Amino acid sequence: MEGVILSSACDITTGDSDQTVAMGSETRGHMRRTGQGEPHPFSISLTGCALAQADDPAPWQVLQVTFDGEREDGLFRVGGMASGVALELTDSRGAVIRPGEAVSYRQAAADDIRLDYYLTLKTTTRELMAGDYRAVIRYRVDYF
């Protein structure tokens, strides 16, 4: 008998296969005046991680998250009846994350990691029109 013990990747815990962020309602007047809605927080929880310490020769020490979706003016495009708006994604420090942009996360050693983000409705160059909207933003976690 032979075998190998491997470091496993993290498990993503969302409670469901889809993670929904309810953005609520914004008025057209508020969007015109300020150019943005209220930020809405969400988190990605990674559990059972085996990130290695810097002096440990584990297979990976860093992870990165890439968010992807349709683009508009450097933001995430929305669909529906609303027009002239898109979603801005920021991390917990306020750094803007663009569609397709990989964001690295370094942690010396952690079994559970919580990545915090915010979605904010922003006006775009198109004409602002009232209506419902929705977007699908996919994310991928890569380990190095």
Automatic annotation (TrEMBL):
Stored SUPFAM superfamilies: Bacterial adhesins (SSF49401)
PANTHER family: FIMBRIAL SUBUNIT, FIMBRIAL SUBUNIT ELFA-RELATED
Organism: Franconibacter pulveris
Lineage of source species: Bacteria, Pseudomonadati, Pseudomonadota, Gammaproteobacteria, Enterobacterales
Pfam families listed in its UniProt record: Fimbrial (PF00419)
Protein known as: Fimbrial-type adhesion domain-containing protein
GO biological process: cell adhesion involved in single-species biofilm formation
A Gene Ontology term for the protein's cellular component: pilus
Highest taxon in the source lineage: Bacteria
Span of domain Fimbrial-type adhesion: 3-143
